Amino acid sequence: GLFSPREVDLGSALLIEHLEVAEDADAVDIGCGYGAIGLVLASMAPRGETWLLDKDFVAVDRARQNAEANRLTNVTAMLSNGLSAVPPARLFDVATANLPAKAGNEMLTLILADAHAHLKPGGRFYVVTTTALRRFIERMFEELFGNYDKVKQGRLHTVSMAEKR
Q: What stretch of H or E contains 149?
């Protein structure tokens, strides 16, 4: 029942390829699934702490197993609908999400706003979406963050980034 369980999907792979993360960054992956993006974050930031969040128990369990299998001790995987289980005072340097096209604009807006609220000043939010959602993400990033950067546009997916100022 997990998304792309046999291999890393093209959108996640594109996002992973274009991440920039400091070694001591605290990071969060929203909708982590089995951990493909979040575990890369954790390996890129071994002196930071990485949280993997998903609303699906099986996904969180798999993410934990994959963190253990990869000997990543700086990972916390937990059940959370978006960032709902994250304490308000917990802030991150980097947030990531592979946003599903079928989630709907209201849910996407909530995720983007919650990510903004949980970023430190100077923190970056990287998302990958289908290219069809690129303009929506651009508008929402401009509205919430005051900036938007199209990091990479492929045929099917776009990686976008905004920085909290």
A: strand 149-153
pLDDT digits (tens, 9 = 90+) for 7-50: 778 999 999 999 999 999 999 999 999 999 999 999 999 999 99
Contacts of 125 (CB under 8 A, 6+ apart): 94, 95, 96, 97, 112, 115, 116, 119, 141, 145, 161, 162, 163, 164
The percent of the chain in helix, strand and coil, each rounded to the nearest 5, is 35, 25, 35
Whole-Å CA distances, 68 to 1, 58, 71, 132: 21, 15, 5, 36
Question: For residue range 55-83, what is the model confidence (pLDDT) as tens digits?
Answer: 999 999 999 999 999 999 999 999 999 99
Structure tokens at 77: 């995987």
Cα–chain center distance at 62: 17
Contact 45, 74 (CB under 8 A): yes
User: What DSSP character marks residue 47?
Assistant: T
Q: How far apart are CA 86 and CA 108, in angstroms?
A: 17
Partners of residue 116 on adjacent β-strands: none
Entry pTM: 0.94
Strands in 75-79's sheet, in edge-to-edge order, are 75-79, 50-54, 27-30, 92-98, 119-130, 157-163, 149-153
